TrEMBL record:
It comes from Paenibacillus thailandensis. Keywords: NADP, Oxidoreductase. Belongs to the aldo/keto reductase family. This is Aldo/keto reductase. Gene3D superfamilies: NADP-dependent oxidoreductase domain (3.20.20.100). The keyword Oxidoreductase applies. The keyword Nucleus does not apply. Residues 21-267 form the NADP-dependent oxidoreductase domain.
Length: 281
């Protein structure tokens, strides 16, 4: 991982290249601030943007992408754009319609990655068939899931024509998901972290502070680097250009094996988001 750079990519099971680091926009409202954040990220070298229908900000994400492309001279295919189908749309026809609605809001012709947002019992398999059709028809470059536990993945894979290429889950030093990571690795499913900084709750952790001081880095940079060295794609959220730049400054150092283990030891199986096996939306 030492030689990684911001433009470097993980290769998904179908050969599609996905940037290791991207910009998350969860809990960012529609508006010019989001447009400017996306432009700043792209100009800094980010090539991956992650949104979702339920974030209700796809219009501003699309506007930011268009303006960033116009101002940098980059092409649409230079960016990797992800969105997700929300729980209310997890039927076959409704998931297909949700994809078209996301494209319309974003103002894009295709997505690079489309995910099922949550494993709603009794619904996600129909939605997965819809994603398989979108993929077979060439409407999307890659398909995957979010917040799926091992048993959800096994259930999908039992009947799937296409194995999920991504599983985007809550992942941070308090929730290291070791068994799930190993399962995904065995089956060629790339793990991706949402809320890698535990929504800021880890940014005053004394153990992480000691490690960060050792490397002359921030706690956020150490956590993001820890993600990358675990082979986990990560999408820290920020709206401030200074923080967006800081989050990307993680390619000029490497955590020692000892420090990786110290961070691993902070695990408490502690979630800040819902439990995928026990949630109500």
């Amino acid at each position: 991982m030492t030689q990684l750079q911001l433009h470097d990519t993980a290769k998904l099971r179908n050969g599609v290249a996905m940037p290791w680091l991207g910009l998350g926009v969860f809990q960012v409202e529609e508006g010019q601030e989001l447009v400017e954040a996306i432009k700043a990220a792209v100009k800094l070298g980010y090539r991956s943007i992650d949104t979702a229908a339920i974030y209700k900000n796809e219009k501003s994400v699309g506007a930011g992408i268009r303006e960033a492309l116009a101002e940098t001279g980059l092409k649409r295919e230079d960016l990797f754009v992800t969105s997700k189908v929300w729980n209310a749309d997890l039927g076959y026809e409704s998931a297909l319609a949700a994809y078209e609605a996301s494209l319309e809001r974003l103002g894009l012709d295709y997505l690079d990655l489309y995910l099922i947002h949550w494993p709603v019992k009794g619904k996600y398999k129909d939605a997965w068939r819809a994603l398989e059709k979108l993929y077979a028809d060439g409407r999307v470059k890659a398909i995957g899931v979010s917040n799926f536990q091992i048993h959800h993945l096994e259930d999908v894979m039992k009947d799937a024509q296409v194995v999920p290429m991504i599983n985007q889950v809550e992942f941070h030093p308090r929730l290291t998901q070791t068994e799930l990571r190993e399962f995904c690795k065995r089956h060629g499913i790339q793990l991706e972290a949402w809320s890698p900084l535990m929504q800021g709750q880890l940014l005053d952790n004394p153990e992480l502070k000691a490690i960060a001081d050792k490397y002359g880095k921030s706690i956020a940079q150490v956590i993001i680097r820890w993600d990358l060295q675990h082979g986990v794609v990560t999408i820290p959220k920020s709206i401030r250009p200074q923080r967006i730049e800081e989050n990307a400054s993680v390619f000029d150092f490497e955590l020692s094996d000892e420090d990786m283990e110290r961070i691993d030891s902070l695990n408490r199986d502690q979630r800040i988001g819902p439990d995928p096996d026990n949630f109500d939306f």
